[in-house]
Amino acid sequence: MRGRGLSLASAAGVIGLIGAAPLPAQTTAPVTASPAEPDSGEILVTARKRQETLMDVPVVATAIGGEKLQNLQIQDMKSLATVVPGLSLGGSLLSVGVQASLRGVGTSALDPGVDQSVSLNIDGMALSQGLAFASGMFDVGQIEVLKGPQSLFYGKSSPGGVISLRTADPTDRFELIGRAGYEFEARERRIEAIVSGPLSETFKVRLAGTVGKQDGFYYNRAQGIAALGSVTPAKRHGSGTDYKLRATILWDPSEKFDARLKLNRVSDDFDHVAIVQNVLCPDGTGPFNGRQFIDSDCRLDRNAPLVDLDPAAFPGIVHNGVPYNTTKQTFGTAELNYHFTPQLTLTSATAYYLANSRNMVNAAATSAGAGLISATNRFQRRQFTEEVRLASDFSSPLNFTLGGYLERTRFYDDVIIGGNTRLGAPATIQKGIKTVHVEAESLFGQVLYKIVPELELAAGARWTSERRNINPFNTISGTPVFVALAVPKIKADNVAPEISLTYRPSSDLTLFASAKRGYKSGSFNVSTPPFTGENNSFGDEKVEGGEIGLKSRLANRRLMFNLAGYYYKYTGLQVGANVQSTAGVTVTRTLNAGKARNYGLEAEMTFRPEGIQGLDLNAALNWNNSKYTSLLNVPCYGGQLAVEGCNLLFSPTANAGLGGFTAQDRSGIPLLRAPRWSANFGFSYERPIGADWTLLFASNNQYQSRSLVDLAYIYYQKSYIKADATLTLKHRDRWEFALIGKNINNELTSGNCANSNRQGGQTGGIITGSTVRGAAGIDEVGCYMDRGRELWVRATLRY
């Protein structure tokens, strides 16, 4: 159908609604969210791989349009959490990337080989590795956050939910956009350029690019100590550049066929990007064995000292000893739609993804002398996927979606653990590479049947078969030497069914109930060099449960109120844990170590007062009760006594041969990044102030109660409120000038913390799982910090 490739417009001022029930006749292709009729109050989403209104789809979802994203300067995934209750994101180091959680369900293992429990979907391409979360937040048409398991339509890596991102499509008329912004706190400069429009009646193109450069938000006032192998660093963390380029082509040659092609290139190159701040120092910050490794106030503030490493003390270290992260991502999707009839469409979605990441960190996270070790890695992931589906849009009571999915993935992590020769360590302590190959196929289908016009039953399932094998090599000698592992291959078959019942007695009231199963693939740990005979595999993570909900439109559709409840049980949770290798050495790996359950309520409201035109009010609230009902073999924190709970997995080689326990039972604690309460509330008010002038004032506020961010030491991120606001002056949609404040009250937060022997520089002296503590006392806790306050000025020109 000509003109079908409309742009992904925004539906301003509307935050996603919790909804249910399908349209009487759904559009099956292309699967791209678009606005409904102007002023209809409807947003179209693709939660079931067909276009449906958010009011009608039986999935708990939040949808945010491109205009709202621009108004609030939401340009990365961490900013997205400020407008989606229940979404939390944590930072990490090396190539692990962002760790995402929805309703407290997420990934805690610091390993780039682990799939995220919350997957990312960009223009139909499924991604589950944390680096991808930095790839797509630019020129976005609409974002859909689908909560709860989504295995039926979004595959094998979404037991916690899906963040589905739809980038903007070419427009029907020529459009040229230029945008420039400056942020004062991190001294960030950013420019954007977009050109879009038709080249012919059937061919449309959109080209978009953005380039940014910043000095970094956090100060780095560390002073190096040459005798301990450290160098005084630059004065700020996070300096560097990034760019994103995207080309979109729409081809609509006939009533029978249309195609959409997306090509992307993303680059991030930053120094000191893993901003670790010491927040808990039980033994103080004084010297250890006469050596000063920590020199900080050990509290949450804007100063996060971290030294560079002296190449003379760490022979062979890269990037002149300055911790850094360089990541290049190239990916694209091709969607082809063939319409046998207006009611029957065959869709092919082909995707390719390539990521290359290089990193180096001060592994001891020291702020005076350099610690004992450094960590350098080179990570690559190649992924090819193909999905074919056939969907109907009949006027009869029965409709269906049938499909198949193929994945071929290869990733490797080349890791070097370097040593500080000034502390007597060898220049290279460990060095090795692990390569994992993934082959997966799945079949899925859903049948939708209208029992009566107001009541629909939907039932479906996805079957998946997956094989993974690992090829490990020790490369410390310079020549790769194959390492035989206990489990070099894993295979799993899984069936994930889903059923929902939707009742829509009127166009302004919808009720639904659903039951689901989901899972996430097992894999191999790749973040450490291999050891002969070790078993570093882990199995699938599984979930089952359900949701009920309602959505209503009241007061002549000026008030929208939605409510949903959910209950899920998880088994085989993939978490970091301590085990003993065949050599008797205790190592940290990802294991299927426990069970969990979470249940809660979500409510959302939008209101447009009749007497104040242009004013939109919104509020959303999530109450979430979650805990690990069984969580064994969590690593002890350094210096933890046996009587303090470190009483599992005794190792005779622990504590330099003295022996000791290495793990603990953490059953009963909350899930990581799972606040009991989270909310966001705000408004937008737009009014004309002259014949050609418009003024927009918008506010968004995020609240989170305290949440657990470290399993071993049990450290909580305190509760907080972050306030955002924007004031924008527009002139006839030709140009605009905006003042934007994000986190105006400058709350410094973290979604991920870790404990280690920072005061001792990881040089030893820690005794764990015994009856006494060692000379190094107890581990310190450091947190991977989120960006603080942002104050933007931004100008936009449109033609």
Can you tag this structure with a few keywords?
single chain, mainly beta, 47 strands, receptor, membrane, 799 residues, ion transport, Beta-barrel_TonB_sf, five-stranded mixed sheet, Maltoporin, Chain A, signal
Task: Give a quick summary of the entry.
Helix content is about 0%, strand content about 55%. It is an all-beta fold.
Strand content: over 45%
Distance between the termini: 28 Å
**Largest sheet composition:** 22 strands, antiparallel, barrel
The helix fraction, in percent, is under 10%
**What top-tier CATH class fits best?**
Mainly Beta
Low-confidence stretches: 1-41
Query: Could you say how many structural domains there are in total?
Result: 1
Assign the CATH topology: Maltoporin, Chain A
Indicate the radius of gyration in whole angstroms: 26 Å
Number of strands: 47
Specify the structural class: mainly beta
Give the rounded overall mean pLDDT. Answer: 89
Number of helices: 3
CATH architecture title: Beta Barrel
Task: Give the overall silhouette.
Answer: globular
CATH superfamily: TonB-dependent receptor, beta-barrel domain
Domain TonB-dependent receptor plug: 54-162
Main location: membrane
InterPro entries: Beta-barrel_TonB, Beta-barrel_TonB_sf, Plug_dom, TonB-dep_rcpt-like
Pfam families: Plug, TonB_dep_Rec_b-barrel
Q: How would you describe this structure to a colleague?
A:
This protein is an all-beta fold and 799 residues long. The protein has one domain (44-798): Maltoporin, Chain A. 2% of the residues lie in helices and 53% in strands. It is built from 3 helices and 47 strands. It has a 22-stranded antiparallel beta barrel. The protein is globular and about 75 Å long. The two termini are 28 Å apart. The model is unreliable at 1-41 (pLDDT under 50). It is found in: Cell outer membrane. It is a multi-pass membrane protein. Its main location: membrane.
